[in-house]
Here is the input.
Amino acid sequence: MSEKDPKKVAAGKARMKAMSPAERRDNARLAAEARWSADLPMADFEGTFNIGQVELSAAVLRDETRIITQATFLRALGRSRSPKAGTGVLSTVDELPFFLQADALKPFITNDLVESTKPIFYRTKKGGKGVGYNARSLKKVAEVYLQFRDASLRASGKIPARYEGMILAADTLIRALAEIGIVALVDEATGFQEVRQRHALQDILDAFLLKELAAWAKRFPDDFYKEIYRLRGWEWRGRRFNPPQAVAGYTTDFVYERLAPGIREELEKRMPKDSDGKRRGRLHQLFTEDIGHPALAQHLHAVITLMKASKNWNQFKLMLDTALPKRGTTLQLPFVEDD
Here is the structure.
């Protein structure tokens, strides 16, 4: 439970009890005005999703906190009560939310749950007023109801009738969340998944690439270049002769553009060209030994296999775009085979 001073909590309850209905309304109004005039966090993403038959409204705040709106949070728990007009929240003087106020539930409520179920006030994308709870707390609250159910069954063999609907809702909720995490649901509903993917992409890039340049080692097999020469109809005279300038473009196209999303851009950012148009090393020197180089070797093997299976350049390009397409590009359609 909360660590608040019991004397202060009791005094607060006594003050509330001594107020007339009109005084309590005025007190709630003043508190609400102060709350909504504060510098509240903004929601950058909003949307809805379903758990069972219940539609939930969600938001992701600028600090990446995932929110489920108060009204739909309550519906997911089998509660339909709404906050009193103007207050914007259902809680008691000891800050327990409405759905955790029953004395029967208190043995199962932890300090962490009390903190995580404090209402969060925010501004919607359109600038309106929003009240919700951290999305992660929904599962925790449902588990409190199921812990109460289990304790009731052990003690008396039955569940108090007044809690049956809420326990059924909690059980349904837990079963649904077993299939997919609540955070993933909120991210998908609000569109935040695209931002999340960019964050994940940086982790991928960091796994593939080194911070500093590694020592040079031969990473591109001769067959990669021999097959380019064969398919282009050029004479192969060995690696000691400088290849046509187009080969550098082919390498970028066939390898770095297709190896992993964002790799080419990240490589060029980490090793930019100087004023003379030269780089201080080879791009593959930035690959890590444990992930980057094995992925490069596997990709090169696939590309060379496609080259060797092709009779001509156009056939190779078609197979390459089909088997190893660039991210975000449209596949070529094989209307006519070029001899």
